[in-house]
Amino acid sequence: MKGGEKYFMKKNVLIKGVLLLIAIVLLTMGFTGCGAIIPTTGTVYLVVSGTWYYDLYIDNIQQFTNVTPGTYVITSVPIGSHYFEAIDTWGWAYGHDSTTQYITAGINYVYLNP
Prior knowledge:
single chain; about 110 residues; 3-stranded mixed β-sheet; rod-shaped
C-alpha cells in the first residue's frame, strides 16, 4: 500500500465515525427531546363561597361575571403572585373578598369568601 492509500483509508474511517456520531446524537435527541420543558404557567381553581352572585377578577381583569358560588377554572396563569377578587354584583359594599397568592406550575387553589 502506498502512503496516499493509507491516508485515504484513515480519512474514510474518520468521516464514517463522525457521521455515525452525528446520527446517534440526532436519534437520541429525537427520542428524548432537546431537554426538559420548564412550565411557565399554572391552572387556578378559584373556589368562591357565599350566597349571592359575584364578578371574579384576577389582577383587576374580570374573568367571570354574575356567577354563583362554586369552583371556576382559570388556565394558563403565569407563574408568580396574582391578585384575586370576588365582588358582589350589587357592589363592593354587599360582598367582597380578595387575596394575593403565588401561583406555581400545575394546580393551584384560591379560596374567596365574599
